[in-house]
Amino acid sequence: MSEHIYWKDDALYVLDQRLLPFKETYIRCATVKDVAKAIKDMAVRGAPLIGLVAAYGMVVGLQEIMKSRGRVKESDMERICRRLKETRPTAVNLFWALRRMRNTYKEFEGQDGLLEAMLQGAIDMHVEDVEHNRQLSHYGAELIDDGDTILTHCNAGALATGGYGTALGVIKAAWETGKSLQVIATETRPYFQGARLTVWELREQGIDVTLVPDNHAGLLCQQGIVDRVIVGADRVARNGDVANKVGTYMIALAAHDNEVPFYVAAPLSSFDESIKNGDEISIEERDGKEVKYVNGRLVTSADVTAKYYGFDITPARLITYIITEKGVLEKPFGKYIKMLFAPGKREHHNGSH
Ligand code: MRU
């Protein structure tokens, strides 16, 4: 797979994930409107990637103003931030990345090198994300046994991040150490992140993958076919409750009832230390049309009401381990999350959103 997000000639280029695996088409984002649309319409998706695209989006937005007016004001920066924040509400990485970029703006405000510093800030975040994914994948790989069959939901691979991936990163890292693995990917209706993206990524790596409809997790756990479940996260609360793609909670229930270990792989940029538990996470509701139409074809009665909640909350009690770049967290998650975010350890987790 080639770079799915890169900066070239004063613009951000993103691979349009809606067209995969059939077409590899890039979208050129040269205005903040282009960037916001790419996130909102899910040309790009996946919590860490949304954060990175928004970070580059800040540069795009400031550059746009500088080209037309020669200088930017703090109110311009705040307007760009607001515009990008309004795109998708659940993945905390978006708010985290914008907060970091806002801090960089404040540091370089009024200086000649402001734009260069902002671009460097976005590039640094991108590089760090890949490094963190590799680190957490290395830790997670130790939890995988040779011969395991692993079920994953949605897409938490390289495509959903700056590179390498989180849940799929763990699978990849275990496979790279020579473990023989089989992966079961759920389709993940209605966007088909599993069928279109996870299957594509794993096959590119040469990892054996079987596709199942979303409603198979219960049966597969009950029949002893699944050895472990690994998923990513859009937001982890202080107590370890996790928001991830809708359907994750049902899979966690099935895993728990059948004593199948359930792992969440997430970088610290997906943790929200400002919220106590999952009740405080805002769940995105998307247009019901996305359920009613598959590839532009109506698959139900035209006038039926359809609902599409993008995410659900898996309570901490159903999660065996949370895998981060700092190591594997066990229960009680709250205790270890608190230690990770203690003053002096919080790195770039300062400020609130
Ligand atoms: O709606 P999406 O495709 O952005 O949702 C993505 C997920 O739910 C992923 O599992 C999550 O962002 C983790 S990606 C490393």
CATH class of the largest domain: Alpha Beta
Beta-strand content: 15-25%
Question: What's the order of the H and E elements?
Answer: EEEHHHHHEHEHEHEEEHEEHEEEEEEH
Bound small-molecule species: 5-S-methyl-1-O-phosphono-5-thio-D-ribulose
Rg on CA atoms, Å = 20 Å
Residues in helix, %: 25-40%
- Residue stretches low in confidence (pLDDT < 50, at least 5 long) are 347-353
CATH topology of the largest domain: Rossmann fold
Secondary structural class:
alpha/beta
The named CATH superfamily of the largest domain = Translation initiation factor eif-2b, domain 2
Shape: globular
Total separate domains:
2
DSSP summary, beta strand count: 17
Distance between the termini: 34 Å
Secondary structure elements and their pairing?
Layout: E1 5-8, E2 11-15, E3 26-29, H1 32-40, H2 47-69, H3 74-85, H4 92-108, H5 114-141, E4 149-152, H6 167-176, E5 182-186, H7 193-205, E6 208-212, H8 217-222, E7 228-231, E8 235-236, E9 242-245, H9 248-257, E10 262-265, E11 285-286, H10 289-292, E12 293-294, E13 297-298, E14 308-309, E15 311-314, E16 321-324, E17 327-329, H11 333-340
Parallel strand pairs: 4-5, 4-7, 5-6, 7-10, 10-16
Antiparallel strand pairs: 1-2, 2-3, 8-9, 9-15, 11-14, 12-13, 16-17
